[in-house]
Amino acid sequence: GWSAGRTSAQHRRFYHRYAGFVRADALRRGKALPTGGAIVDGAGRTLGQHQGAHGFTVGQHRGLGNLPPEQRWFVTAVDTATQTVTVGARADAERTAFTIGEMHWLARPSDDDAAFSASVQVRYRGSASEAMVTVDGSRARVQLREPTVIAPGQSAVLYSRGRVLGGGWIERSA
Hints:
By secondary structure, the chain is mostly beta strands.
């Protein structure tokens, strides 16, 4: 993965290049430039400001700026329409259920309606979590035994006894 062996300084340089790309692309297409906005807690209390919601992902806990040190903050929601980034405790960002879309199978279960046990890994450096999985066409519904931080757009890979079953992309929850 891109993160392996990278320093925080390298991540910051990548972000600034990405932010520059977003701005240049917006200008090229005649769109409004991304603007700054508020970082708020779950109660709507403003904790800080940011330079554009496009620079944040659900589950992110680094690079949030100078927020109150009362706890370790995690991004729990990003609203690009209002440029609002909501943060909270880790538990606020954790989920026990999600859907994997655009599934690509290497070893597809034979019965689409039957639930089966599998390990699910949602981050390159993350640990695999035990789950029950139900296949629904090109999607897989995942029910984790223990909550974990997930974000729409992250990849998720299913394993059984160390063997890759398949993977896809975590969908935005309703």
